[in-house]
Design goal:
3 domains, alpha+beta, Adenine-n6-DNA-methyltransferase TaqI, Chain A, domain 2, 20% strand, four-stranded antiparallel β-sheet
């Protein structure tokens, strides 16, 4: 009979890993490595997201990641990324589980590991995680007990395999599109880096005002007329309007309302994500930005915001910013406004800036169109899986 089961009843273990201070590079083929949190928080396992374990450390063999492991982020500075899970398929040897990630080991007699990963991504489980999550000040977490108490659909193994098969059919189709999209993104990155040129200037000299940190009032449940961006609005692709929160409409809050085209940069995050930059786009209602971001307003007579965004997103600049970030933990490092003002950026004349922006924008439009197709397929995939988990029949035409 279909119902729910407490997840702990179908697990043989929930464990955490180890996060020694690692070398800031990927491990070589014969080296041990430790996964980064970003290996999990996309919702898919990315084995390349790892750091090299220094040879001075003895690897903890019991923490080696294996095929079939289900990994879950147990802590993050972004609330929406806590509890994100993925199932490990193929994985290179000598990769270790990090401290901020749980390893959930399924009892194979009753629970298919790929089904577990799919079930943990369902809306019902997400609501449960949001209910039990604790933390503030940019660091949220769930406990092992919280994970064991999660409720998932009680399906027999044959039913679980049908859910896995439907999900996999979509993954194959989406995978083809994503590989093509990745090629476009690589081309875009190379084009942008090659196009950016000009005499070097200190960034602070072309800003109309000093970088300004944001404001993070307490979230409210009711619409007040004012919203705040979440830190996740800044991505590798620039500004993405998501994670918006209702906040009190106060005089203090109104001091941080953004203008269309304002440049934003994350000033605190994991080392991989700190310094992400993007241009704010009007979302249809007044928005403020949080304390973990800073706002940059270039002098329009010297520097186009759209050009500066390209510069700040360029791989060379990202490496410079990440190297300058400081913190006691890789899960939360910070950059100061002084560091940002001191960055050296290439600055051609405004006409050349416009040419560079137009060139890159043409490729951005192709990328956006392909990403929209993938997003629609993901929505259909999620709907099909949710129906199967709930026992509703739906034709999965992938």
């Amino acid at each position: 009979m279909r119902g729910e089961v407490r997840l702990g009843e179908w697990l043989t273990g929930v464990g955490t890993g180890w996060s020694p201070v690692c070398d800031p590079r990927q491990p070589g083929g014969d080296e041990w490595g430790v996964l980064k949190l970003s290996a999990v928080t996309s919702g898919r396992f990315i084995e390349s997201e790892a750091k090299a374990l220094p040879r001075a450390f003895t690897p903890r063999l019991a923490l080696e990641v294996r095929p079939g492991d289900v990994l879950m982020a147990r802590a993050n500075g972004v609330r929406e990324l806590v509890g994100v899970a993925c199932t490990v398929g193929t994985v290179r040897p000598r990769l270790l589980l990090p401290d901020l990630v749980f390893r959930l080991t399924a009892d194979p007699a009753v629970l298919h590991p790929e089904f577990l990963g799919i079930a943990l991504a369902s809306h019902a489980v997400r609501r449960q995680i949001d209910d039990v999550m604790r933390g503030s000040s940019g660091q949220y977490k769930v406990s092992q007990a919280d994970v064991r108490d999660l409720r998932i659909p009680r399906l027999d193994v044959d039913e679980q395999e049908r859910v896995v098969a439907a999900h996999a059919a979509f993954e194959r189709r989406i995978g083809v599109l994503e590989r093509a999209l990745d090629k476009l993104k690589v081309a875009r990155s190379g084009l942008a880096e090659a196009a950016i040129d000009g005499p070097d200037v200190v960034l602070g000299e072309v800003l109309a005002e000093r970088p300004r940190n944001g404001y993070s009032p307490q979230e409210v449940s009711e619409w007040s007329g004012l919203q705040a961006l979440g830190l996740g609005c800044l991505t590798d692709e620039g500004f993405v309007p998501k994670q918006l929160k209702n906040v009190p409409d106060t005089v203090m809050g109104r001091r941080y309302v953004l203008r269309d085209g304002d440049l934003l940069m994350s000033r605190a995050n994991t080392r991989e994500l700190v310094g992400l930059a993007g241009r704010y786009q009007d979302v249809g209602s007044p928005c403020i930005y949080p304390d973990l971001m800073m706002r940059l307003r270039p002098d329009a007579k010297r520097c186009l915001p759209s050009y500066l965004e390209l510069v700040l997103r360029a791989p060379a600049m990202r490496r410079m910013v990440k190297a300058a970030a400081r913190g006691t933990s890789e899960s939360m490092v910070k950059i100061s406004s002084e560091v940002v003002e001191g960055l050296t950026v290439p600055l051609p004349d405004r006409e050349r800036q416009r040419e560079i922006v137009r060139t890159v924008a043409s490729l951005d439009r192709r990328i956006a169109a392909r990403a929209e197709v993938i997003a629609k397929l993901r929505t259909v995939q999620q709907g099909v899986v949710e129906d199967l988990l709930a026992g509703r029949v739906r034709q999965a035409a992938a």
